[in-house]
Design brief:
Blueprint: H1 3-32, H2 35-40, H3 46-62, H4 66-88
Helix pairs in contact: 1-3, 1-4, 3-4
Length: 93
């Protein structure tokens, strides 16, 4: 094998590990917020987000279809950029 092949394999491994970490982080955060917060922020329900993020994590871990990985990566990014700040901004009284 050439040096390029080793470098390419290393980059792909790093990307895969980063995507697994991103999806696991989003899933764990989704678990920590109260279900009422999702409704109060006018977002999908907590079980919906947990299903989306959980399936995305499993798809990434199993290395299934690349298009599914892209779709679930986008979903995790949407959760972290849009839903998390909205739900985190709400406080229990």
């Amino acid at each position: 094998m050439s040096l390029f092949s080793y470098a390419q394999g290393g980059v792909m491994l790093a990307v895969t590990v980063a995507l697994i970490a991103l999806k696991a982080y989003a899933f764990i955060l989704a678990l920590t917020f109260p279900a009422e917060g999702y409704l109060a922020a006018d977002k999908l329900t907590k079980p919906s987000w947990l299903a989306i993020l959980g399936i995305g994590l499993v798809v990434e871990l199993l290395g299934l279809l690349a298009i599914l990985n892209i779709v679930f990566t986008i979903a995790a990014i949407v959760f972290l950029v849009d839903v998390r700040p909205a739900v985190r901004g709400l406080r229990r009284s």
